[in-house]
Task: structure prediction
Amino acid sequence: MGPFTLSVILYAAAHAGQNCETVFQETAAKVNPNVLTNGERPYLEELAYAACQTTNPDIIWQIANQESSFRFLIARHNTEKGARIYKGTAAVDFLKDLRKKSRKGSAKSSSVDVGAMQFNWSYHQEGFGHDPVRMLSPSAQVEYLLETFGEYIYQRCSSKWVGCYHNASDSELGSRYQKAVRKKGRVLQLQALYYLKGALKEMSPEQKAALPRLRKEEFFQVLNQSRDMPLPEREIRRFVINPPNLAPEPAPLFRDLRS
Result:
């Protein structure tokens, strides 16, 4: 099975004659249909592209689902009195204000969970250049997981790295989180099956014949290995029936960050 052994998304893409990004986006939109109409679709496209450049787009899908239900312009400010959630332009304005305060040295310890993958500003700001607005970027979040944070928590927690993504110092909290993310994997599997069924229904016999043959035992092997939630790495080579999408235009908020 080669590159599909770890990924439900890649398996569904290959057997539906689609690319990884399309399956990622379509299955995510089933979880949060509002992402298609609330102006956040460019951010979903950016997350899908970044995830599909890794060996395991599934786990990025699962974490984003668990953390934010695929909401992108979102910030959660945690205080002793409770949490306040900012969405849309209010989240951007709040984070811009946090950036100003941080540059003056007055907000570096603020506990704020940011963006689709909800990285905490207090703990992870260095990995984003001390810029809380940049933390909203889906591609920056995936890059940080690949290049910095993922390796750290895997070395510390090994196969329990997903739990440590949430809390590396409390094993009970980490274990509960790992179980919750694994359940999101079952949601992904179901949505991928629905997607695959719908795609095949629209195809002619000739189109189906050109695709890899579906084998029940192979599919269940993919499911079993996906449940192990392997740490994603940067993908070097990826086979798909259709070529991958070109890198999308940066989501509007981040175009100036890539210059």
Summary: The chain has one domain: 2-232. The CA atoms of residues 68 and 116 lie 5 Å apart.
